[in-house]
Amino acid sequence: MKRFSFHRRGGGILYCQLFNPETGKYLSAKSTGTTDPDDAVLVAARWLNDGIPDKSGKVRQVREVMAMDGIVKTILSAAFTQAMADDILMALRSRGFIGELPAGTSAAGQEKLSDFLRRF
């Protein structure tokens, strides 16, 4: 399996999609900033080796980007259950990323994730 693929967008700029073996799908396309195919391959290889810059310019390791992609794809899948959502909320709460449960909900996570996200 190819580790990445390219396609052109406006102005002929080559966009790269890295393959995520965990999900069996490609990540979202990211601009290589070049129209030259050889340069685009060098950019993709550099991302695989050194990490992928995000929109702010911070470089994130490939394994971190792919793990996050897998988490998001799992959450969006039909197989994702309320129990799984409760586990994620508990983990986020334990890390201090979200506060305590709102009044009227139990510690078992009775609030639906969609309601929480709207409130958040």
Class from secondary-structure proportions: alpha+beta
- The portion of residues assigned to helices is 40-55%
Spatial gap, N to C terminus: 40 Å
Radius of gyration from the alpha-carbon trace, in angstroms: 19 Å
Question: What's the main sheet like?
Answer: 4 strands, antiparallel
Name of the top-level CATH class of the largest domain: Alpha Beta
CATH topology of the largest domain: GCC-box Binding Domain
Return the CATH architecture of the largest domain. 2-Layer Sandwich
Number of strands: 6
Tally of structural domains: 2
Large-scale geometry: elongated
The proportion of strand residues reads 15-25%
Unreliable runs = none
**Count of individual helical segments:** 4
Mean pLDDT value: 87
The ordered string of helix (H) and strand (E) elements is EEEEHEEHHH
Short description:
By secondary structure, the chain is an alpha+beta fold. 41% of the residues lie in helices and 17% in strands. The chain has two domains: 4-60, GCC-box Binding Domain; 81-119, no CATH class.
